[in-house]
Design a protein that fits this description.
The protein is an all-alpha fold. It contains ten helices and no strands. The model has no long low-confidence stretch (mean pLDDT 96).
Length: 187
């Protein structure tokens, strides 16, 4: 059982009610609803990370799955396995990341980037050589976007672990569809 109650949208303020009504009914959003002053800006950032990056959406999802694996976040894994499939990541690549088999040839050029992401999540730092790996595969913008994705989803993993967030069935592409529909807007 979660350590915080899931916010009852009917008891929330009007802005939180409105935000939650537009979202899939996930435990994560109902916990985040308690942080009324940051809910909408947080949703805007999350939406931008899911819909407005230069970073390839398939790599973004592999990175999120690597963060989930490295941080031990089952909640993120469940949600983002389905999203990864929805944006076209082949099943073998998803299985390789989820199972920690980054040496799988199916990952191709993504493997070195994912190893760096794993190191960053585990140690909160990367070496000059590891950063050079990112630079070999990503331009300046994509490097910053990747690091923002890592930080955002590591933060979610920490929140999920701290409150002992119960698993939800996957919302599949609903969150991506919503982010894309509201690109540039605050939900």
């Amino acid at each position: 059982m979660t350590r915080l109650p899931y916010l009852d949208p009917n008891l929330a303020s009007a802005p939180v009610q409105e935000a939650l009504a537009a979202l899939p009914d996930l435990h994560l959003f109902r916990v985040l609803g308690h942080a009324e002053s940051v809910l909408r800006p947080w949703l805007a950032l999350g939406g931008a990370l899911l819909s407005s990056l230069s970073l390839d959406p398939r790599l973004r999802e592999l990175v999120i799955l690597q963060v989930a694996r490295s941080a031990g976040s089952e909640y993120e894994r469940v949600q983002h396995e389905a999203i990864a499939a929805g944006v076209g990541v082949p099943p073998r690549q998803i299985r390789a990341v989820v199972s920690g088999h980054l040496e799988d040839s199916a990952l191709g050029d993504s493997a070195p980037v994912l190893r760096v992401v794993g190191e960053l999540v585990q140690t909160h730092a990367i070496t000059d050589a590891e950063f050079a790996i990112l630079r070999q595969h990503l331009d300046d913008r994509e490097c910053v976007e990747l690091l923002l994705v890592v930080g955002h989803y590591l933060g979610l993993a920490l929140l999920a672990a701290a409150v002992d967030l119960e698993l939800d069935p996957s919302a599949r592409m609903a969150v991506i569809d919503l982010a894309t529909a509201h690109r540039g807007e605050t939900p």
